[in-house]
Design brief:
Layout: H1 2-12, H2 17-29, H3 35-46, H4 51-54, H5 57-60, H6 69-76, H7 81-92, H8 101-126, E1 131-135, H9 144-149, E2 153-155, H10 156-163, H11 172-178, E3 204-207, H12 214-223, H13 230-241, H14 248-262, H15 267-279, E4 284-289, E5 296-301, E6 306-308, E7 311-320, E8 325-332, H16 334-338, E9 348-349, H17 365-372, H18 374-379, H19 385-397, H20 404-421, H21 428-459
Antiparallel strand pairs: 1-2, 1-3, 4-5, 4-9, 5-7, 6-7, 7-8
Helix pairs in contact: 2-3, 2-8, 3-7, 7-8, 8-10, 12-13, 14-15, 17-20, 19-21, 20-21
Length: 460
């Protein structure tokens, strides 16, 4: 048994420190080493010829080009940080029994992430860092909490003070309740909260460096929901003006669908309408996290009404800042535009919010025509589909007032979506949409059967 432990520990010693820590936690949780052995290995790991400092030095080089004598001593001296790490492993995250292999791996990764946060805070404090920033790994697997915390800046002192008492993991209900729904609260009111936020959390902390570029500063203002000055707003608009569609094919697809709304015939003319909207001094703008793909998105619309089919619409453009592309431009109702601004999606208005007054909500031909485009959007995984989902939700509210020919066009699209795409996506708004159109088709089918029965009884 001792020989086996020696072999395991010897293999661990050949890995990077982060990997070593994870594997030590794995062995401890698995019951293969005890607390005394864990303490000995941690002390060895965190006091080995300065290795404990080397992983953070590159990140801090921009902050301290000339390290002090104290910092030099810290690089090679005895580090008591291992005792804090030991406490995290044995007390904050008490050893759990009966875990399966994949659960042990997840648990070890998570405890290791908390240890890394503790280590980084200690090192940053020693190096004279004053603020830290939350950096999330942004992709399809990023959780809502990590997405909302991405870019958040905290003073190092309060962050150090709260870490010891912070709950080991965050559950959405107690996280948002404790922070008074951060996504719509002034940033100064949110107390520091540090990763990991959940099992297998990939979010980390880094030293905060004040951005010099106006666009980067604007993003920082958004992430912290701080008031954005005019210079930063202008930088966001300039950045959006340089964005293009993800591909020439995407441009052609959107231009073909919507150029008739603008009386134009070419792709260049369609793009010129985007430029005109961005140059409009009265334009309205908002930043928010897209409910469709979790990307930071700029929404721009013209408060001036465009009349289509005798109904009031507004030119509306969507830019994905994370994906660095223009998503679409077309005319939408104000009600549909505003559905992008759910407070849960961390919304910041860059101009006074405009709301149409006394506008008829009646569904007209262009609404049905734009909804028919959702089939192409779903087929090509075009995130513009969410704009038509919002429109379809509006149709449902006004269903009884929709002319019968338009109802049939809408229902025909609903049927195709259910047949081909019902299982395509797993985000909540899409699932609600599928449930809604399935229910509508069921209601219409039941009404049709009832009408046929009554017709049969009348003839008999």
């Amino acid at each position: 048994m001792k020989a086996l432990k020696y072999i395991l520990l010897n293999k661990i010693a050949k890995k990077s420190r982060a990997e070593q820590l994870t594997r030590l936690i794995h062995l401890f949780v698995s019951g293969k080493i005890n607390e005394k052995q864990l303490m000995a290995q941690l002390e060895k790991l965190y006091n080995r010829s300065g290795e404990a400092r080397n992983t953070l030095t590159p990140q801090l080089s921009t902050l301290n080009s000339q390290p002090s004598t104290l910092n030099s001593q810290l690089t090679t001296g005895k580090d008591l940080l291992y005792q804090q790490i030991y406490h995290s492993i044995t007390s904050t995250y008490p050893k759990k029994e009966g875990l399966e292999a994949h659960q042990i791996e997840s648990y070890a990764n998570t405890v290791s992430a908390r240890a890394a946060t503790t280590e980084r805070l200690s090192e940053y404090q020693n190096r004279g860092v004053h603020k830290v920033q939350i950096v999330a790994y942004l992709d399809h697997a990023t959780t809502d909490i990590c997405r909302m915390m991405h870019g958040r800046v905290f003073e190092l002192g309060p962050a150090m003070g709260i870490l010891a008492n912070q709950e080991p993991l965050v559950h959405s209900e107690n996280f948002w309740a404790a922070n008074d729904h951060f996504s719509q609260s002034p940033s100064a009111e949110m107390r520091p909260w540090l990763p990991p936020y959940h099992y297998n959390c990939r979010t980390r902390i880094v030293p905060y460096i004040e951005p010099k570029d106006a666009y980067d500063a604007a993003l920082n203002s958004y992430h912290n929901l701080s008031k954005m000055p005019e210079k930063q707003i202008a930088a966001v608009v300039d950045h959006a003006a340089r964005l293009e569609f993800a591909s020439p094919e995407k441009l052609s697809q959107h231009s073909e669908k919507h150029k008739a709304e603008y009386g134009i015939t070419t792709n260049a003319g369609y793009l010129n309408e985007v430029k005109k909207l961005l140059k409009n001094p009265l334009k309205q703008m908002a930043l928010a996290i897209s409910a469709r793909d979790g990307s930071l998105t700029l929404y721009v619309w013209n408060p001036k009404v465009r009349t289509l089919n005798n109904k009031e619409r507004h030119d509306f453009a969507v830019f994905s800042l994370d994906k660095k592309c223009l998503k679409t431009l077309h005319a939408k109702s104000m009600e549909d535009i505003e559905k992008n601004f759910d407070p849960k999606n961390k919304v910041m208005f860059l101009s006074d919010q405009y709301t149409s007054k006394g506008v008829s909500k009646m569904i007209v031909e262009i609404d049905a025509r734009q909804y028919e485009y959702i089939i192409d959007y779903l087929e090509t995984d075009d995130s513009t589909d969410i704009q038509e989902i919002y429109s379809r939700q509006r149709f449902e509210k006004e269903w009884d007032s929709i002319p019968e020919p338009l109802k049939q066009r809408i229902l025909a699209v609903d049927k195709i979506v259910l047949e081909r795409y019902a299982d395509y996506f797993d985000y909540q708004i899409f699932k609600d949409y599928i449930k809604m159109i399935r229910n509508r088709l069921h209601i219409e089918s039941s009404c049709g059967i009832l009408a046929q029965n009554k017709s049969g009884e009348a003839h008999s």
